[in-house]
């Protein structure tokens, strides 16, 4: 094979970085880009011509080729016509046929080590070692439960890894991440996205968030997970349209990872369409409680997201307060995720009444096992005929419990951790203070009713700023904090703006405002100013938009300038400070106006729900149930609020008990499975701390001429050497980068690059070592007693090759793997007598010239040994294929069984969905039948 560089439609090229794509065909060329179809992988890729990682395939006389209908031929001559090759090739009957290159099979492999060895193109021994190591690590990591979860710059928290470990492994996960405020849903989502990308389950990801959170997401994804998202907004769209007036490109297609605000999509029909057409594997929507299905306009948030969710196979919705807008809204979001399971709202509501019974049944299954005769009738009642298959699974207790959780709870779809089950949260200290209600409000009656929660609303700014006692109190309180930072939250943007101006100009407090009247950039600037520990603002005055999603846990004083209407909103506000990373007790300051609806609201929250001191899961359901009485209590000054407080408290106690026994108990079972999470964390830490990574990198740096210098404890500077070809490290800056392999150091020192097996730089290195020919042919000498000098052995390395469309997700059942055999000319397998490491220790390099001279003599023996090794590989392949078929059957068979069981309850489950999984099963099996163990490396060993 040779390489040349002119593109013509119909030519055959191979991707150097991803040989698994098979042989590509040039299908399109424009002035800068070339598009190739890869029929073996059912993919199309477009490359910039200038630096396309492609190699032209031109077979030579003597080479074996196959046509697309799999006819074997031998090349006898090659002719070139207008840039396209025509092979004159001999068939098995001895006839010469003309085969245009376009007719060649796409299922091909390249850079055959045999061809390289016999052509005398050896690599250094170190390169062979690195190749074997890369294959071993690749196979180990592929099979590791830690896969995709290594190298995140986060603390390993059990409740997060429990969820991430479960969801990240799913094909097309559709889940609601609903941890209580501040427990790390963004981090859970990041872990899932990272793992889905690392495992190839997803590559195109769209994140949709409220506008104020766009940058925070961008930064979190980059600094914690090394995932570089691009923002699409109307400005980006305008820019593209201007640059390419003729046919403006779809801005969502410019990047694999995109963040876009929900407002951008609701405001622009065109961007909505483009987002829908851009083809995604995963959609993430933060603060999903805003999605309200009762608003049916095309541009309403629910319609926009459900339009996307219908087209995108994986969907993660995030909300800390899933029931904030009521149970109906909660149901609608679950329906959006899994319409088969959540099709009937009345049934869903009935089910909620049965949660305690399901929970009790799961407990009984855990204690006696599902086949206990007392349980069978009850289990059959809930699970029907599917019970028999579940009981027959490897872990029947788990299988039956999961099925109960999924089909009669919200098991598969909803994950919620609560503070009650996650330790390490700070205490909350309350500072309520009743202030006199000023005549300004009393005279106008603006202190009553729901509107009385923000009584300043109808008054001139100068009036309320001077008369409302909360303003002077705020000024005094901030002064009393002696330089400590405080987050001030109020409901209205106008109030926030006025207060901030007042504090800044009248009181001389360094402050910033954060509200919807500011642009995105201005808001992020304000948040950064507040976060700055040296010269930063001492107070950030937020409207309600600051009460969602933002990370302000570097402050510990929260000032609630007013109180929100609902308990969930209150929890969102407190959650800005009460979140992971908050090391101090939180001081919550609550000024309220005596004898006003603020005082009543304070009493209902505090004495009725106890919602300031701790999160109150019963708060929202109780509020919904008594909402009209609650709001009229705010309205009516003549009625004593005590009776209402009592009602709320009683309902809250009863609801809390019911939730604890039912919904919360079920959710807890599902969300955090501590044992599993701990063993996952152990697996991740074993990989992160592995000395092998250090050794692997040291060898790679040596081969590619990268220099390293000590920088400090656990850190080194790496930079390109003088004559370095850079190989897999093209992005290494000239002045180098400072790296650490230690996670704790990386979490503390964000300026260091955290290298792990899953860092893009190491991934590129692994790919370089496994997808190119480097290191696949070597010669070595060995001194060992007991073997006659001049004896020739052959170390062979095989890798599994099985091109299949990416969406089949074959690696889930057929993981990448490699095999090594050390054989002698008599076909003895010496692999365990002389393992690879031992052979490395005992062997020395042979000079290239000497090896080339020895080649003609050893070649016949080596060819025989290759045959022997291929024999071993052939029988091993059948074992690998059998295991893969079983795994595939288990995985997709389980999906089919679930859908059939759901079909019994819900006739809306379509047969076509069941057929889809069955056809995937058939396609997967066909692909497994085509798998091969392919020779991937050869090292000739001559004893000295
Ligand atoms: N494992 C972790 N390691 C380090 N920091 C973390 C971890 N988990 C969460 N954090 C930090 O804790 C804070 C809260 O996390 P996050 O924003 O993901 O919570 P959330 O559940 O999405 O909050 P909200 O309900 O307010 O949207 C963030 O500052 C985040 O960076």
Automatic annotation (TrEMBL):
GO terms for molecular function: ATP binding; DNA binding; helicase activity; hydrolase activity, acting on acid anhydrides. InterPro entries: DEXDc_RapA, Helicase_ATP-bd, Helicase_C-like, Helicase_RapA, P-loop_NTPase, RapA_C, SNF2-like_sf, SNF2/RAD54-like_C. The keyword Secreted does not apply. Residues 473-620 form the Helicase C-terminal domain. Pfam families: Helicase_C, RapA_C, SNF2-rel_dom, Tudor_1_RapA, Tudor_RapA. Gene3D superfamilies: 2.30.30.140, 2.30.30.930, 3.30.360.80, 6.10.140.1500, 6.10.140.2230, P-loop containing nucleotide triphosphate hydrolases, Tandem AAA-ATPase domain. This is RNA polymerase-associated protein RapA. Keywords: Activator, ATP-binding, DNA-binding, Helicase, Hydrolase, Nucleotide-binding, Transcription, Transcription regulation. A motif (DEAH box) lies at residues 286-289. ATP binds at residues 179-186. It comes from Tamilnaduibacter salinus. GO terms for biological process: regulation of DNA-templated transcription. Residues 166-340 form the Helicase ATP-binding domain. PROSITE patterns: HELICASE_ATP_BIND_1, HELICASE_CTER. It comes from the Bacteria. The gene is rapA. Interacts with the RNAP. Has a higher affinity for the core RNAP than for the holoenzyme. Its ATPase activity is stimulated by binding to RNAP. Transcription regulator that activates transcription by stimulating RNA polymerase (RNAP) recycling in case of stress conditions such as supercoiled DNA or high salt concentrations. Probably acts by releasing the RNAP, when it is trapped or immobilized on tightly supercoiled DNA. Does not activate transcription on linear DNA. Probably not involved in DNA repair. Its EC number is 3.6.4.-. Coiled coil: none annotated. HAMAP family: Helicase_RapA (MF_01821). The keyword Cell membrane does not apply.
């Amino acid at each position: 094979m040779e390489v040349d560089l002119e593109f013509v439609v119909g030519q055959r090229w191979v991707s150097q970085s991803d040989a698994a794509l098979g042989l590509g065909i040039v299908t399109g060329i424009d002035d800068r880009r070339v598009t190739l179809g890869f029929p073996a992988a059912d993919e199309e890729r477009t490359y910039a011509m200038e630096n396309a990682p492609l190699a032209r395939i031109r077979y030579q006389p003597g080479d074996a080729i196959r046509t697309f209908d799999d006819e074997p031929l031998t090349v006898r001559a090659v002719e070139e016509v207008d840039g396209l090759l025509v092979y004159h090739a001999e068939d098995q009957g001895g006839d010469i046929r003309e085969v245009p290159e376009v007719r060649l099979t796409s299922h091909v492999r390249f850079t055959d080590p045999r061809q390289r060895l016999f052509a005398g193109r050896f690599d250094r021994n170190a390169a062979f070692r690195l190749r074997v190591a890369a294959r071993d690590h690749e196979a180990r990591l592929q099979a590791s439960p830690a896969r995709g979860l290594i190298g995140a710059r986060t603390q390993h928290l059990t409740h997060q890894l429990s969820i991430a470990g479960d969801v990240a492994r799913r094909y097309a996960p559709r889940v609601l991440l609903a941890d209580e405020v501040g427990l790390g849903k963004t981090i859970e989502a990041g872990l899932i996205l990272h793992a889905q990308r690392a495992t190839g389950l997803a590559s195109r990801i769209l994140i949709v968030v409220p506008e104020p959170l766009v940058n925070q997401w961008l930064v979190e994804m980059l600094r914690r997970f090394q995932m570089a998202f691009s923002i699409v907004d109307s400005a980006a769209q305008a820019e593209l349209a201007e640059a390419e007036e003729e046919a403006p490109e779809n801005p969502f297609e410019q990047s694999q990872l995109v963040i876009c605000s929900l407002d951008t999509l609701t405001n622009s029909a065109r961007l909505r369409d483009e987002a829908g057409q851009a083809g995604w594997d995963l959609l993430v929507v933060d603060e999903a409680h805003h999605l309200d299905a009762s608003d049916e306009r095309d541009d309403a948030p629910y319609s926009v997201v459900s339009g996307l969710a219908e087209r995108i196979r994986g969907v993660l919705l995030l909300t800390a307060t899933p029931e904030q807008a009521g149970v109906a809204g909660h149901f609608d979001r679950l329906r959006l995720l899994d319409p088969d399971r959540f099709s009937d709202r009345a049934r869903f509501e009935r089910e909620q009444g049965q949660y305690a019974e399901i929970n009790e049944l799961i407990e009984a299954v855990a204690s006696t096992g599902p086949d206990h005769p007392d349980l069978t009738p009850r289990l059959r009642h809930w699970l029907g005929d599917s019970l028999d298959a579940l009981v027959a699974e490897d872990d029947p207790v788990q299988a039956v419990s999961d099925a109960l959780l999924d089909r009669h709870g919200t098991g598969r779809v909803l994950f919620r951790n609560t503070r009650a089950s996650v330790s390490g949260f700070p205490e909350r200290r309350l500072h309520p203070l009743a202030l006199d209600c000023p005549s300004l409000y009393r005279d106008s009656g603006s202190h009553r009713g729901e509107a009385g929660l923000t009584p300043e609303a109808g008054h001139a700014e100068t009036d309320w700023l001077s008369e409302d006692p909360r303003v002077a109190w705020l000024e005094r309180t901030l002064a009393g904090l002696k330089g400590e930072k405080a987050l001030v939250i109020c409901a209205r943007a106008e109030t926030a703006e006025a207060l901030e101006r007042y504090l800044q100009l009248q009181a001389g407090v360094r402050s910033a405002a954060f509200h919807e009247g500011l642009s995105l950039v201005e808001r992020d600037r304000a948040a950064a100013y507040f976060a700055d520990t040296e010269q930063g603002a001492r107070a950030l005055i937020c409207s309600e938009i600051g009460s969602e999603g933002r990370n302000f846990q570097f402050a510990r004083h929260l000032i609630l300038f007013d109180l929100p209407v609902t308990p969930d909103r209150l929890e969102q506000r407190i959650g800005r400070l009460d979140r992971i990373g908050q090391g101090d007790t939180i001081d919550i300051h609550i000024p309220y106006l005596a004898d006003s609806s603020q005082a009543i609201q304070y009493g209902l929250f505090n004495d009725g729900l106890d919602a300031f001191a701790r999160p109150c899961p019963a708060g929202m359901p109780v509020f919904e149930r008594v909402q009209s009485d609650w709001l009229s209590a705010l309205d009516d000054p003549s009625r004593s609020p005590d009776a209402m407080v009592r009602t709320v408290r009683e309902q809250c106690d009863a609801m809390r008990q019911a939730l604890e026994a039912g919904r919360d108990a079920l959710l807890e079972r599902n969300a955090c499975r501590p044992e599993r999470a701990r063993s996952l964390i152990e697996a991740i830490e074993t990989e992160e701390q592995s000395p092998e990574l250090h050794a692997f990198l040291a060898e790679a740096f040596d081969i590619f001429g990268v220099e390293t210098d000590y920088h400090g404890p656990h850190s080194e500077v790496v930079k390109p050497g003088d004559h370095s070809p850079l190989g897999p490290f093209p992005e290494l800056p000239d002045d180098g980068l400072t790296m650490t392999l230690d996670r704790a150091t990386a979490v503390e020192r964000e300026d260091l690059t955290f290298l792990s097996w899953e860092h893009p730089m190491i991934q590129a290195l692994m790919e370089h070592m496994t997808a190119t020919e480097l290191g696949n042919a070597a010669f070595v000498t060995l001194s060992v007693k007991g073997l006659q000098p001049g004896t020739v052995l052959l170390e062979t390395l095989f890798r599994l090759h099985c091109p299949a469309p990416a969406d089949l997700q074959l690696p889930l059942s057929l993981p990448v793997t490699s095999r090594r055999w050390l054989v002698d000319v008599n076909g003895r397998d010496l692999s365990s007598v002389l393992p690879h490491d031992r052979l490395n220790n005992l062997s020395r390099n042979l000079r290239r010239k000497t090896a080339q001279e020895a080649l003609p003599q050893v070649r016949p023996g080596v060819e025989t040994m290759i045959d022997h090794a291929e024999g071993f590989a052939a029988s091993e392949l059948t074992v690998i294929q059998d295991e893969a078929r079983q795994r595939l059957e288990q995985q997709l068979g389980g999906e089919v069984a679930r859908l059939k069981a759901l079909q019994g309850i819900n006739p809306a489950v379509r047969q076509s969905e069941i057929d889809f999984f069955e056809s995937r099963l058939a396609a997967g099996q066909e692909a497994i039948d085509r798998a091969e163990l392919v020779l991937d490396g050869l090292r000739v060993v001559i004893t000295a």
